[in-house]
Here is the input.
Amino acid sequence: MADVISPKSPFKEDIQQYLVESGIKEKSDAILGPFSDISNQVAEALWNAVLPGSPGSSLSWELLTLTLLMATAFWFFRKGRGSKDAGGRERPANSLLHYLLPREIYTHQSARVDIGLYLLDRGMMPIWTVLFLGSVAPFVERNTIGVLQWAFGASPGVEPTIAWRLLYGLVTVLIADMIFYWTHYMMHKTQIGWAIHKVHHSAQVLTPLTRPREHFIAGPVWALGPAIGITLAGSIFAWVFNGDITRITVWNVGIFSLLYALNGNFRHYHVSFRYPRWLELWLQSPGMHHTHHSYLEKHWDTNLGLVTSIWDRMMGTIYIADKYEETPWGLAPKDQAEYTSLRDNLVTPFREIFRILRKKPKTYPGSATPELAAGKTPDLSA
Here is the structure.
């Protein structure tokens, strides 16, 4: 099943060889060895999902091609509308090529920074995946099953019919979505979280490479959520089914990875992909994420969900924009100046965290007095 989810790719084979030669793979095996088969195979599924060459990766040729084909259909049926410029404003496309791959976006400095951050993120993600699935996941699994056995007794041994498998998949998505929302919420609403997450929001243009645009110290935060969410759901249904759900879990993770990878490409792509308004009240469309990346004050801290809009509606953070509403991307100018180059995005979060820990007010170059940070969220220390 894992081969279906993630076919062979030279890039992954090189990584695997490096891990073996460096001794990391041996240590990883030692970490994962005592734990269940399900944790091992989920780790393999996630490993494959985050590396290029797999349909589970948003940067696979299959999904990039599908993204371009869908955007081509938008260009045809919308008569050229729906494509945004580097300022997040709808702009006329002189040709199909200009609609799909505008020079001003893909030669922008922000797009070049995306490449550097992507390479660093991809290099470290397998480490976070192995560590959390080798430690956090088994801990959550053992204790969740233990609590269920203590509270309800022996497993009912339910037959995993198609309906039950679909329910398992739905519960997994909802739990993962809930954890993502609250993690994302804290990234926006805490000073240290925002100092780190500004790296993602400093993208002044959106391309498929913007999705993994994160500071490397954010990797453990984003890896921890899926490790807990997927394992929690898996543990509950392992007890319901009396175990033997490895194949079902790998299938669920694979399908979710495929769907999210395609959705993720349009979440960070200059062509807007919207759902009907009534559906956006329940599901996050890629176009809603365009609004999330806007530095306009009315768009701050909105549309924080991953899959559903349920938590955004409950917390009042949902914003459904007009069909072609302007969404200028990045940070407001004062913050953007500190998060522009690759070096800025790697170094500035550490400076900000150090400032916050010292309880120093935020100041900007050329400003005599502390000011409120002009980004997604006001700097509460100012």
